[in-house]
Design goal:
The complex is a heterodimer.
Chain A: H1 14-19, H2 21-36, E1 39-43, H3 47-59, E2 63-67, H4 74-79, H5 87-90, H6 95-106, E3 111-115, H7 124-127, E4 132-135, H8 140-152, E5 158-165, E6 168-174, E7 177-184, E8 187-194, H9 198-203, H10 215-230, H11 242-255, H12 265-273, H13 279-298, E9 307-311, E10 316-320
Parallel strand pairs in A: 1-2, 1-4, 2-3, 4-5
Antiparallel strand pairs in A: 5-6, 6-9, 7-8, 9-10
Chain B: H1 4-11, E1 15-18, H2 22-34, E2 38-42, H3 67-78, E3 83-87, H4 98-102, E4 106-109, H5 114-127, E5 131-137, E6 140-146, E7 164-166, H6 167-171, H7 177-193, H8 201-206, H9 228-248, H10 265-268, H11 293-296, H12 308-325, H13 340-356, H14 364-371, H15 379-397, E8 406-414, E9 417-422, E10 439-443, H16 450-461, E11 468-471, E12 474-478, H17 485-495, E13 511-516, E14 521-529, E15 542-545, H18 615-629, E16 637-639, H19 643-648
Parallel strand pairs in B: 1-2, 1-4, 2-3, 4-5, 7-16, 10-14
Antiparallel strand pairs in B: 5-6, 6-8, 8-9, 10-15, 11-12, 11-13, 13-14
Classes of the chains: A alpha/beta, B alpha/beta.
């Protein structure tokens, strides 16, 4: 095989064809080409985000920009396989920098780089450089702001958030108005999804949601509201917070006219205490998130709308459509 | 975070991982991050370029090295203080015996073939060690837990047998492109470039007494007075022209079939000097991997479907390149999907044959997938499945039998679920592996040789590695390194005897015992004599009964902790019993080469017994249907066929 022969502008190189052979057999050359021209911003290097980054770099995305100024900590060491066990190499370096170095190794055809600064300070012009933004951990206000900016740009920017607590995980997806082709009996049927913004989705009154919506959805909203009200750094909760959280649950359930029993104490306790991520759950949720981002960027496959939940306790990976539309 | 008790269980555990490929890389990483400190890995494979899109512990510079060893090194970089022991070896080696397995608290499979899975299942049963089994194909995957006496074993559910095609379909009446690929790869390619001295189906047929005089000369051999071009054209005309004309002369064959059209080179490429772009360029190519007929002809895109003329040129050019640049390989080549020139030759030959039979032609990329039986594979599914394996492994260590789950990863949501947990089944009481239920073999005891029983039944169907076969207390066959010479000679004699002619005659009513000391496997086979077998439906000339118990009648339910009221009892989703990686098409003659033959099997059984509308079940059917659509997951076994076709089945 003559390597590196570029077969026209629109063709994949022989090198790409050889490396991506097994996945091109799933999603085709066109999807692979679109993926390789996509640029993505990733904020907050949690264990789940690290898993996600590995997946999209392997898949051959165009470029990844990492955002996380935090210095490498013991905790990061424990759930992050991108951080080598070498204190000397890590001194004074940000988590994004360390992860970037390791990620580059996974696929020389993907451009991985680091951006400094605060996610909440990013404006529309900067976000226009990207086809998708994925947020690992940020305050609800920041998530809402960034999603709002993405939706206002004329360029389409897909928006994802992911949060894992204890052995539970949640993914949120906003693809705005998304058109894709679905195969039905060998015919391609054009389908369209209208996604609500994060703000719109969480504002849907709970009593208007289907009866079987997972309790994890409500529990995550209660924790989210609690962190926002208390001005907590996301994920920094303890068992001692339970009584305040129970009180907030009462208020929210009353306001939304649902029974408090839909959000069990036991679940709230787990989410408050389990501030360290579980590696198997990171792998599972990071895997699903990787797949959804690849779908959105390549235009291939039925996308998830608009929440995904996983709980290792019952082993279910559930899709919930939370929208007023 | 995990409870203290859970962490202690993880820390103190000793686990065995079998397979360091797509699932294996993900699994080793997740185990290490989760706190496991004593991990053994077995994998016999070395790293290839096409692994790198998902097996993230490997880099370009590792190509050709041991997967187990490189995976170990990579994980030690972020977890230097744990014990990882790498075995670059076949899990079926005798060193990995029951005692070896007994040292582990749990065994985790990330394998790519049925034989190894069955072997590990038996060793786990014998050693009493729980097994967490897994598999992925594209977006689909599954994790199952097998604990002796508590849940079903890996072999309690019937495993589908490889798809088989009668020889006559391949040699005379192809109707699908896959038939043309099998012909090009297993017959034509093997004949021209493989071991000529070895009898394959081809030689047996052409040596048929009625026209043996015609076939004294081996047509596939280049004559002294022939240059490469002449030789190539002669082969081309013979297999695509003359043989088709000959086949057409038998009117009976084509009564209800579309007649093929003979193709001669002069009709496809009428102008002389068609090789001007080809071998005339005298590039000094020493690296065989860079030899390419399509590139030297200016065909660059493997995704394009070539015209008949282009395929014919590639055929001649590839043949010529083999003769000129890879002369040493000829006579010992076997098809390798990573050998560019071999893939080009097989693609071109299959396409010309397809054109002859009115079958749509395919691109090199597609042909490679079919010929190499390439299975779709992506990192994301493997990562998800590895995470699920670790979750189940931790439950096994905590001895939480009530919470064991089989989990299916599906492409389209089923009852809103992408990850679907199901309670494990109880052991199947009629399983010949874990319940030692006797099997019945219908066979012609007067005609069938012991060798056929050993190869087709004991090794192939029962997956026995080192068989010992007994009739009562009399040994009639065994294998092993430590046998006496006279015993070896004796067994060799037995192999060639019909069952009823054995020193201890095997007739209707005889009970044979098959054992494997390494697997600690025992099973009884009741022999029933039967005179006739249907060549088409029972091409093996024998029928083994008792292998496929119908388990789907048993109700199954989705794991429900709460929310059970809103959840209707669940249909059982499709089982994706499959492989992570590549596999080869299995040809009968090679079927005893266990180590080399990897298979992929897709079980498509779906029951909707609790949901008559089966609305969601259809989604799964579609998922699995996709797997079945591609020819690439069909495992092909060539079978002997009826006599009248053999006469026409002259190839080359």
């Amino acid at each position: 095989m003559v390597l590196g022969v570029i077969m026209g502008k629109e063709e994949l190189t022989a090198q790409e064809t050889a490396l991506y052979d097994r996945q091109i057999r799933i999603w085709g050359v066109d999807a692979q080409r679109r993926l390789s021209k996509s640029h993505i911003l990733v904020a907050g290097m949690t264990g789940t985000i690290v898993e996600f980054c590995k997946n999209i770099v392997l898949a051959g995305i165009g470029s990844v920009v990492l955002l996380d100024d935090r210095l490498v900590t013991r905790e990061a060491l424990s759930v992050n396989f991108l951080v080598p066990n070498d204190e000397e190499k890590l001194k004074g370096r940000s988590l994004a920098e360390v992860c970037c170095n390791s990620l580059k190794d996974f696929n020389s055809m993907v451009h991985v780089s680091v951006e400094k600064g605060d996610l909440s300070a990013l404006d529309g012009e900067i976000l226009d450089k990207f086809d998708a933004v994925v947020i690992g951990r940020a305050s609800f206000a920041t998530k809402k702001t960034i999603d709002g900016i993405c939706r206002k740009r004329s360029k389409k920017i897909a928006f994802f958030t992911v949060d894992c607590r204890d052995s539970c995980g949640e993914i949120f997806v906003d693809l705005q108005n998304y058109v894709y082709n679905q195969k039905k009996n060998d015919d391609n049927v054009e389908c369209q999804f209208h996604y609500p913004s994060l703000e719109e989705a969480v504002a849907v009154p709970w009593n208007r949601l289907p009866k079987n919506v997972t309790k994890l959805y409500f529990a995550m909203r209660v924790i989210e509201r609690f962190e926002a009200a208390e001005g907590r750094i996301p994920g920094e909760t303890t068992a001692a917070d339970i009584s305040s959280v129970q009180q907030l649950r009462g208020e929210l359930c009353k306001a939304n006219s649902i029974n408090e029993s839909r959000i069990p104490d036991e679940l709230l306790k787990r989410l408050l205490e389990g501030t360290r991520e579980h590696p198997p759950v990171c792998a599972i949720v990071g895997g699903i998130l990787g797949q959804e981002v690849i779908k959105a960027l390549s235009g291939k496959g039925n996308p998830l709308k608009n929440f995904f939940f996983f709980d290792a306790k019952d082993g279910k990976g559930i899709i919930e459509d939370i929208s007023s539309l | 975070m995990a409870s203290e008790q859970e962490l202690q269980a993880i820390k103190g555990a000793k686990v065995l991982m079998v397979g360091a490929g797509g699932i294996g890389c993900e699994l080793l990483k997740t185990l290490a991050l989760s706190g496991f400190e004593d991990i053994h890995i077995i994998d016999m494979d070395t790293i290839e370029v096409s692994n790198l899109n998902r097996q993230f512990l490997f880099r370009q510079c590792h190509v050709g090295q041991s997967k187990a060893k490189v995976a170990r090194e990579a994980v030690l970089k972020f977890r230097p203080n744990i014990n990882i022991t790498a075995h670059h070896a076949n899990v079926k080696n005798s060193e990995f015996n029951v005692d070896f397995f007994k040292q582990f608290n749990v065994v985790l499979n990330g394998l790519d073939n049925l034989d190894a899975r069955r072997h590990v299942n038996r060793l786990c049963l014998a050693a009493g060690v729980p097994l967490v089994e897994s598999g992925t194909t594209g977006f689909l995957g599954q994790v199952t837990v097998h604990v002796k006496g508590q849940t079903e074993c890996y072999e309690c559910q019937p495993k589908p047998t490889p798809k088989t095609y009668p020889v006559c379909t391949i040699t005379s009446t192809p109707t699908k492109f896959v038939h043309c690929i099998v012909w090009a790869k297993d017959l034509l390619f093997a004949k021209l470039f493989g071991d000529r001295t070895q009898d394959n189906d081809l030689n047996v047929h052409s040596a048929d007494a009625t026209n043996s005089s015609k076939n004294n000369e081996d047509i596939s051999v280049q004559r002294d007075d022939e240059d490469c071009e002449k030789y190539g054209k002669r082969i081309y005309d013979h297999v695509f022209g003359y043989n088709i004309d000959l086949a057409l002369s038998n009117e009976e064959t084509w009564k209800n079939r579309n007649k093929p059209k003979p193709i001669y080179i002069k009709d496809v490429l009428p102008e002389p000097g068609m090789h001007q772009n080809g071998t005339n360029n005298t590039l000094d190519i020493t690296d065989k991997s860079s030899l390419s007929a399509m590139h030297s002809l200016g065909l660059m895109n493997p995704q394009d479907t070539w015209t008949l003329a282009e395929n014919s040129k590639v055929f001649l050019e590839a043949l010529s390149l083999f003769l000129k640049k890879r002369e040493k390989d000829i006579g010992s080549l076997s098809f390798d999907k990573d050998d560019q020139l071999s893939v080009e030759f097989v693609t071109a030959a299959a396409n010309v044959r397809a054109a002859s039979f009115g079958i749509p032609m395919h691109s090199l990329f597609e042909s490679k997938g079919i010929a190499g039986n390439i299975v779709h594979a992506i990192a994301t599914t493997n990562a998800v499945i590895a995470g699920l394996i670790v979750i189940e492994a931790i439950k096994v260590l905590k001895n939480a039998a009530n919470s064991f789950r089989m989990t299916y990863c599906v492409e389209h949501p089923l009852k809103k679920m992408l990850l679907m947990p199901v309670e494990p089944f109880e052991p199947n009481k009629s399983c010949y592996v874990c319940s030692e239920m006797p099997l019945t073999l219908e066979v012609n005891t007067h005609k069938t040789k012991l060798r056929e029983i050993v190869e087709k039944i004991v090794k192939n169907k029962l997956g026995v590695n080192l068989p010992i076969i007994m009739h009562g207390s009399t040994l009639i066959f065994e294998t092993g390194d430590d046998l006496e010479e006279d015993m070896v000679a004796n067994y060799a004699l037995n192999l060639e005897k019909a069952l009823c002619d054995l020193p201890s005659p095997v007739t209707s009513g005889t009970v044979l015992t098959v054992e494997d000391f390494q697997q600690e496997f025992t099973c009884s086979i009741n022999i029933t004599h039967r005179e006739e077998f249907d060549d088409e439906k029972e091409p093996e000339g024998m029928v083994l009964l008792g292998l496929t118990p119908d388990l789907y009648e048993k109700p199954s339910k989705v794991a429900t902790t709460e929310e059970s009221t809103s959840m209707a009892p669940q249909e059982k989703p499709a089982t994706v019993s499959d492989s992570d990686d590549e596999i080869e098409i299995v040809v009968l003659e090679e079927s005893n080469r266990f180590a080399g033959s990897k298979r992929k099997l897709v079980e498509t059984s779906i029951t909707n017994s609790h949901d008559p509308k089966g609305k969601d079940g259809i989604n799964v059917a579609n998922d699995v249907g996709k797997l079945d659509d591609g020819h690439d997951d069909e495992v092909v076994v060539m079978k002997a066929c009826n006599e009248d076709v053999r006469k026409k089945a002259k190839l080359v």
